[in-house]
């Protein structure tokens, strides 16, 4: 099982459940989450979606072992939805989305926050967008959503530096609505989700639509630009050096890589 699904008080909770891999997204998990998000959108009994992770990580982002396979194996079979399909599912989700960031959030485990309506973080959680350290481009429309959420300079640092962002810094930037002690995180996130879920779904949908509709075209365009840039860089010399270094357990050395 890679994803747990639970319902209660009109809140559907999705728990990423690959703790042995720090809940990293492989093709199977991308597909499972996308299917679950689309199902929640269509289910009239669901008013709010709550997403969290099992274990000490929210999500370590893309599974780099599988990413290396994709970059080097022309016969690798991709999933039905994949990363882009999962992002589209969140971008199109019409109801409120609450995230409970229980631990480490890397890559997609951080950029997904751009699609949340409320984010609660454990005080022990940390975020990182490791794009420059992997020699790739940003993802999940973060090049548009992060500047909108946290301002250009904060977004530039988060997306360009590949540095860790602690919970307090994320809260100060505006990436998180609330900080919670680790053992209080789910209760607090669920409490807020249930407050929203007690309201009329059609009203929630209308409010969210009026808030996000002005950015929908910009999000689609950003996603397309990012995917094109990511595709150009994936499998290139710098990216292969980064992935090889990860597999070998050493720091990447870009100094001898042409163009890096």
Automatic annotation (TrEMBL):
Entries under Pfam families matching the protein: ECH_1 (PF00378)
SUPFAM superfamilies assigned to the protein according to its UniProt record, in alphabetical order: ClpP/crotonase (SSF52096)
Subcellular localization: Peroxisome
Family matches, as InterPro entries: ClpP/crotonase-like_dom_sf, ECH/Chromodomain_protein, Enoyl-CoA_hydra/iso
Entry keywords, A to Z: Isomerase, Peroxisome
UniProt keyword Isomerase, yes or no: yes
Identification of the protein by name: Enoyl-CoA hydratase/carnithine racemase
Annotated source species: Nocardioides massiliensis
């Amino acid at each position: 099982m890679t994803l747990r699904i639970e319902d209660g008080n009109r809140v559907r909770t999705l728990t990423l459940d690959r703790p042995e891999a720090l809940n990293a997204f492989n093709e199977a998990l991308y597909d499972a989450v996308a299917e679950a998000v689309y199902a929640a959108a269509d289910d009239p009994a669901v008013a709010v979606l709550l997403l969290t992770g099992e274990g000490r990580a929210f999500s370590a982002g893309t599974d780099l072992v599988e990413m290396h396979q994709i970059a080097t194996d022309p016969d690798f079979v991709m999933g039905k939805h994949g990363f882009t399909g999962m992002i589209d599912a969140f971008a199109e989700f019409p109801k409120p989305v609450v995230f409970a960031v229980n631990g480490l959030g890397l890559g997609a485990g951080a950029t997904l926050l751009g699609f949340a309506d409320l984010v609660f973080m454990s005080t022990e959680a940390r975020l990182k967008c490791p794009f420059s350290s992997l020699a790739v481009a940003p993802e999940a429309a973060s090049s548009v959503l992060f500047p909108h959420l946290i301002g250009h300079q904060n977004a530039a640092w988060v997306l360009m530096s590949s540095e860790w962002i602690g919970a307090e810094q994320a809260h100060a930037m505006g990436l998180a609505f609330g900080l919670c002690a680790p053992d209080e995180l789910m209760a607090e996130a669920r409490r807020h989700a249930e407050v929203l879920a007690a309201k009329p779904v059609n009203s929630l949908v209308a409010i969210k639509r009026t808030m996000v509709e002005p950015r929908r075209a910009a999000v689609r365009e950003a996603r397309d630009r990012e995917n094109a840039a990511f595709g150009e860089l994936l499998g290139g010399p710098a990216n292969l050096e980064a992935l090889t270094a990860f597999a070998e357990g050493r720091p990447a050395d870009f100094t001898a890589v042409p163009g890096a």
